Amino acid sequence: MKNKKIIVVFAVVISLIASFSLGYNIKTKNNDINNTELKSETVEITTSKEKYSGKKPKYIFLFIGDGMSYSQLQLADYYLKKTGNNGLDILKLSTNGTIQNQDKTSLIPDSASTATAMATGEKTKSGNINVSEDGKEKYETITQKLKKDGYKIGIATTVNINHATPAGFSAHRESRKGYYEIGKEMLNTGFDYFAGGDFKDKKGENGDKKSLEKIAEEKGYTVADSEEEFEKLGNNSKKENSSNDEKYLLIADDREKTDAMKYSIDKRYEQENGEDESDSLSDYVKKGIDLLSDKDKKDKGFFMMIEGGKIDWACHKNDAASALHETIDLDNAVDEALKFYNNHKDETLIIVTGDHETGGLAIGNSNSEYDTHLENLGLQKISCDRFNEEYVSKYKKEKTDFKEVLKDIEYVFGLKKPLVFKEEKAKEDSDDDHKHSDENSLELSKSEYKRLKKAYNLTLENRKNRTKEESILYGSHEPITVEVARILAQKSGVGFTSFSHTAAPMAVFAEGVGASEFDGVYDNTELYEKLIEVIYWEILVFYNFSK
Ligand SMILES: [Zn+2]
After folding, report:
1. Alpha carbons 274 and 103: distance in angstroms, whole number
2. CA 350–ligand 1 middle distance (angstroms)
3. For tag attachment on the chain, is the N or C end more exposed, with fewer CB atoms within 10 Å?
4. 316 shares a domain with 268
5. Does 338 share its domain with 412?
6. Does 288 share its domain with 436?
7. 489 Rama sector, left if φ>0, alpha if ψ -120 to 50, beta otherwise
8. Centroid of ligand 1 to alpha carbon of 66 (angstroms)
């Protein structure tokens, strides 16, 4: 009895400390809510798992799908299979684990705090990159540690190279928004390989600073920002007399206006229309392997962090079709690592995970109930972002008639206008009808037609200030685009709960040397601990190595 009391007191104290330090203390009129005893007993489990004492990985790949949780993976995998393809290779990796990722300020974290957790094993507040909550303490990243230890370091992403996730593995900053400063610090690391979209704010916020590309050249980086220069790099370009510490900065030449790489769905559309194939994340992994791995047996190996950054961007816009193509793009990048692994099985470790979930994506919604028609998402030709740029901006300028807009919507999203245009005659919703499981109408119902029209009117209004209701419906995005993507998603059996991130846990997949360490359910800081354990267990044992 006495023991039980002690346990209760202990549990309450711990939960108070936890809720206080995490900053999400629940406050209600009923002050007792924090003291409600729900679970007082906890059973200690002694693990039968032994400490790692296997081989030390020489080549380490850490893939991070930004905004990618189980449901994003599941959507891409089911979609592939539904459309006659092989499923995702990520799901075939031998080890699977789950990570929790709340940060110091929120149960729903952002890419900066989660990258910090994975890169340093430290929790911080949302928005901070590898510094403590107050910004005073800088944390050493795993990439810095490994660089000192002789590993070559590569960072690749589909978004801007100085965005939060790549910055999380190469910079320290109280705000993830200091893009220029972050870029400068990245180039000071001496890391061996950066590849992806161009720097955001590459000449500073006001465009009056020395270009980061110029700084890169001054720091000794070989900069390739065109297809031709990219082709020239590689093993063969390694001149006989070149030193072993050549550094590379690869900037995709096929970018969108944010200077990130283009969405995969858009690149696919361009290719289908005869345009040249442009670089993808998998090309950057392949090139990274070429440039960082040395035939010289003395080399200590490499660590590469590769981010699929636009899964997050698509999900923020509730653009399911673009999100699934980004996930497939990441899977293709993982394939390059797997090919390398097949030739270096006892030296390579591959980890694939996400940083946080975006959009509250789920397969299933109240419109489609138990039905799914994921193949409908294949009708969408371009990303919502590109639809905004190429179509919506024109509508706003020309106040295009809604009938014309519906024609575009049919072309771009595959949604058919109702046969009769007058709203009252448009196809009635089949709420009360018996619903067949194979019913898959791409024709807009009366209520869908009304929703689109309402959203279109709001798009044309082009108001800065939105009512609370409008914000819930459309976030800060173009109402017509959000609505059309939502209707297509609903007709496909997909739903979103948010335009922001959610607290869904992350999936972890691992293969190769030390992979089995990454199973179980754990915190994102432990991903770092596990990496350290696998790489430095000998030192940890003999010298009580501490981070
Ligand atoms: Zn995000």
Report:
1. 46
2. 24
3. N
4. yes
5. no
6. no
7. alpha
8. 7
What's the confidence (pLDDT) of residue 540?
Answer: 81
- Residue 165 has what DSSP assignment? H
**One-letter identity of residue 168:** G
Place of tokens 């039968």: 48
Residues 378 and 449 in one domain: yes
Burial of 540 per CB tally in 10 Å (0-12, 13-18, 19+): middle
Task: Name which of 102, 289, 111, 117 is nearest 195 in CA terms.
Answer: 289
Number of domains in the chain: 2
Domain range enclosing 275 = 59-361+501-536
Rounded CA separation 361/65 (Å): 14
Please report whether residue 179 resides in a domain: yes
Q: Identify whether residues 381 and 473 lie together within a single domain.
A: yes
User: What is the whole-number distance in angstroms between the Cα of residue 313 and the centre of ligand 1?
Assistant: 6
Regarding whether 155 and 262 lie in a shared domain, the answer is yes
What's the CA-to-centroid distance between 238 and ligand 1, angstroms? 38
pLDDT of residue 435: 43
pLDDT category, 466, cuts 50, 70, 90? Answer: very high
In tens, the pLDDT along 114-164 reads: 999 999 999 999 999 999 999 999 999 999 999 999 999 999 999 999 999
Other Cβ atoms within 10 Å of 32 Cβ, number: 7
CATH number of the domain bearing residue 263: 3.40.720.10
**Rounded mean pLDDT, 54-83:** 97
Q: Residue 448 and residue 483: Cα distance in Å, rounded?
A: 9
Q: For residue 470, count CB atoms less than 10 angstroms from its CB and return exposed for 0-12, middle for 13-18, buried for 19 or more.
A: middle
Q: How far is the CA of 304 from the centre of ligand 1 (A)?
A: 22
> Do 106 and 248 fall within a single domain?
yes
Distance 318 CA to ligand 1 centre (A): 12
Q: 394 and 291: one domain?
A: no
